[in-house]
Amino acid sequence: MTTFLPGSVADAVVVLAEHRPDVLAGCTDYMVEVNGRHRRPGDVMSLRRLADLRRWSVAARVLHLGATVTFTELMGQPLAGFVPSLSQAARTVGSPQIRNMATIGGNVMTASPAGDSLAVLVALDAVAVLASVRGIRRLPVEELLVGPKLTSANPDELLLRLEIPLRPARHEFIKVGARNAMVIAVASLALIVDRDRTRVCCALGAVGPTVLRATTAEEFYAASSSRRSCGQSPEFVAEFASLVAAAAQPIDDHRGTARYRRHCIEVCARRALQRTLRSGVE
Amino acid sequence: MTASDIFITVNGRGQRARIDYPGQSLLSLLRDSLGLTGTKNACEQGECGSCSVMFDGKLACACLVLAADCDNSSVETIESGPRDDELCIVQRAFHETGAVQCGFCTPGLVMAVRDLISRSRGTEIEDATIREAISGNLCRCTGYGRVLVAARFAIEQSR
Amino acid sequence: MTATEDRLAGLLGTSVLRPDGVAKVSGQFAFSNDLNVPGMLWGGTLRSAVPYARLRRIDTSAARRMPGVAAVISAADVPGKPLYGLEVPDQPVFARDIVRYVGEPIAAVAAITPDIVRAALERIVVDYSPLEPVVDATLALSAEPIHPDGNLLRRVCVRSGAPEFSYDVMVEGTYSVGMQDQAFMGPECGLAIPAQDGGVELHVATQWLHADQRQIAACLGIELGQVRVVQAGAGGAFGAREDVSLQIHLCLLALRTGCPVKLAYNREESFLGHVHRHPATMQYRHYATAEGAITSIEAEIILDGGAYASTSAAVAGNAAFFACGPYVVPRARIDVHAVRTNNPPCGAMRGFGAVQTCFAHESQMDKLAARCGLDPVEVRMRNLLQAGDRLITGQELDGPAPIARLLRRLGSAPLPPRTSETGPFSLPGGAGRTTDLENVQRGVGYALGMKQLMFAEGRDDYAVARVSLTGNKATITSACAEIGQGFVTVAQQIASDVLGVSQVVLEPATTDVGSAGSSSASRQTWMSGGAIQGACDELIVQIRDLAAKRFNVPVELVSYDGGRAWGPGFDIELGDLLADRELESTFTHRHKPTRQPDENGQGTLHVAFAFAAHRAVVDVDPELGLVRIVDIATTQDVGKILNPVQAVGQIEGGIAQGVGLAVMEELIVREGRIRNPSFTDYLIPTSLDTPPVTVVELVEEPHPDAPFGAKGIGEPPTISSTAAIAAAIRDATGLALPKVPITGEEIARFAYMEG
Q1: Which of C241, C273, C305 lies at the terminal end of a domain, its last residue?
Q2: What ipTM describes this predicted complex?
Q3: pLDDT of residue B84
Q4: Which residues of B touch A40 (CB under 8 A)?
Q5: Do B144 and C680 touch (CB under 8 A)?
Q6: Of A228, C321, C391, C411, which residue is most buried, by most CB within 10 angstroms?
Q7: C198 in a structural domain
């Protein structure tokens, strides 16, 4: 088993093209599989030492978030202030030990249907920046996540960073789980409401083969004139929530039935929207 | 670069260590190769925190760290306490407040509380913050009651 | 900042520090998995992949041929008795022609590395001919027997009171408790070293060294004296280490290879490799007057014992005898059936049968309260047992029974204030931010529990301890298994207190001394503590005799206390009196005898009883079904506290296990297979899930038969805490919730099914 430790992104993409190692950052998903004997360890390439991937910056109202930024770092200021929902999601990932090591890029590329940051990234219209020996490619995260533990990235592509447009908006992230720490989501929801309340983005986690976008609900919101009025009617909120729930495609498993998960989404959508409507926007 | 051995600093001592098999975890390296059995193995899935160590300055589960990726890394384990029967503030707090029963989770909890204290230098720490800081450490004996008392005591002692 | 050994010895009633505490906080304490010897081999176990099948063929030849493999053994290689078992030897060391549960051991391998062990296990070929498994406990008795002993593990009936009775109200319900796991932190591990005489020395974390020794010797076909068991550091137990798990396999491998062998389970194998708490289905009918005074209780209870007997008989006994709770019940008709199925075997877990029936009887008491227009405390107060009352077994409730005081003090303890903060950890859902203040309903619930201490029903339950005394140091030798509960501290406190010496050493527990019995049933302080006390008392007799002879005075005039002997014309320190002598005493402590029940469950079955009360305050988000346990308050009948900090630790820990059973812990078994054998999916409470525990009062009414008056305290916190939490959730939601654990889905189900 070879352990590749590239010193630069340029080296990394070459290694990836030539050897197709498992790409590791925080290792948290990888080692669970190796320790549990669900994955035979082979060649690996570690990105931990690549400073470029650990950085983040804001330019022209876009947050450039390096792939190996950890969840603990996402919970800290000022990053948390730029993307509150991402910070909220980060706080629900695993445990402090896991948050210290696990990375946003790893969460994306593992592409678990219950990945805690994924619904937020989709709701934020985040764009994945992928690199290979062929160059750079940009792809909305929504198009990158295509199925359970499946991305549309080519096998020789490396996730470099995420580009997240920063709009003045109210962020909400809600995750339902059976315990208050170290828990896999039964259902999760990210809701981003623009400051002028003309637009919402809403994405769902753990209730489908991958993250789902509540497109019909978003369109309903955009088309509705009542969103502008001061007292948002309960009927409006209920209709919105019902449309969000209809977008879910949950299955029954040992963590919950499909019916319960869909119900959770409806409740979370209603509450998330009520919170944003109630308290104004930063 | 093939890593059949690595250079790793453990509890301040730099040394070469051999990787015994592909996929070997840092936990296995510590316990099986280096004979440092203070770090415990209760699940190997990152779900219990009994293998908590400081890895390059961050609290981490050693079972989730790939040993082959530890070249030039620095690890601090429960064995990094003061020498000669001395206990650090956190260890003493756990011992004196009755926070130790079977003791299997204790090394991991001590590491987590030490980390909390060093990250929070001088600031007020609420009970909820302590609970969150140790939420990655499962304990089956204490119900965390005395553990919270121990952490609170250690925080006060370290001011 | 130095922790010193001198602080270990101290008076009873003080919070003396654990003698193993320094080693545990520094990572130096050796748990069973930390043991290694040079030249040792590794062991591993092949387990059945199916719940019920004939074994047509087991082919170990490919495994044997692998380089690095030292031995592969299966049923044919068991030289002694093929079956073992804690109460009934009904369980094969290795399955021979039939497997009866997923995880049943079929073979074992010893090899030079763990990887080779794993590879060899994969090379063992097993041909199963699947049979239709019996997985529904309610149908087990009408199904074909899955074992020569049949599918009934034990039936216990209690019939007390007149056939006729009157009542104004009747409340009924069917309740169920899911399969809880002990989930101790230190997975099973042992190290077996073959001895020159054809015997073996086994280092293992266990709860009863001599029971292991007995079963190992029988199955290995060697003398008892050839098996030496040494207690290794135990990472908890809670009942799961009472039965043999890896012990016999490991010793067989050691003898077969002639090498030391170490065998360790990982977490998944640990879930498969030990017994679990019995799932229970319970149908109850409580009859009462309009004022809520119970006139009769009827209950039919089925316990799923899984494939082998383990301690199902004793669990069934507890379930039956404590089916009604700490109340006056003029008439009882209780039927408990512990049945055999192809589900994973069940046995001891803290609370041992009383947990399940407590949930049922406390749920019933709340129903009765509602029916009679009483509050939960009132209905219980009206029916409480007092010392001297007759139990449903016909036994008089002897010993202190301060139940009324427990309930009264608990009922008048102030409630925590309503949550006003909105930080994530003040609301259900935690960091998931699921819930706002307006979504929260608060509920309060009460529960009372009772259980016996020590073994019961005529079992010869005893404990041996040896104490030797040289100069000013006492050395205790006891086979009592320390599993985290703090016996090691109390043992030293007892010797120090009785003998008046400040230096006390507790030797490691081995089978070199007589049996201490099991570290279970909340019995060791009473039994092994009593043995130590007995040995120390006998040593004092020797000391006084020595002084009498030395100073030529009648022994009646010799006094001894606090390390000094004095009398007419002399006053001498113990050290000076003993000089170079070593005094020694070995004492066997027995409790007063109990009887086996007659066919109506009647008799003096129990030695002593302990009671506890719990009040739970919960905040529930009924729409999502999320629960935050705000506070649990408790009162407990403890007899006498020997070590206050350790006592509180046991109580807080026991309550946390009750929390787990109430809201999150269940091994999901489908078609005989455990679906969630991992900490990822078998959820135990984290620090963000456990509430602060308010110990309102530990009532000390010393038991006259108990050494130092101290009752065991380990189990009562786990018995009624689950029921109190369930009651609180019902109070918050108005839902029936007849099953624990109560899932979010179960609470929320009513929100979306009602529309």
Answers
A1: C273
A2: 0.98
A3: 56
A4: 23
A5: no
A6: C321
A7: yes
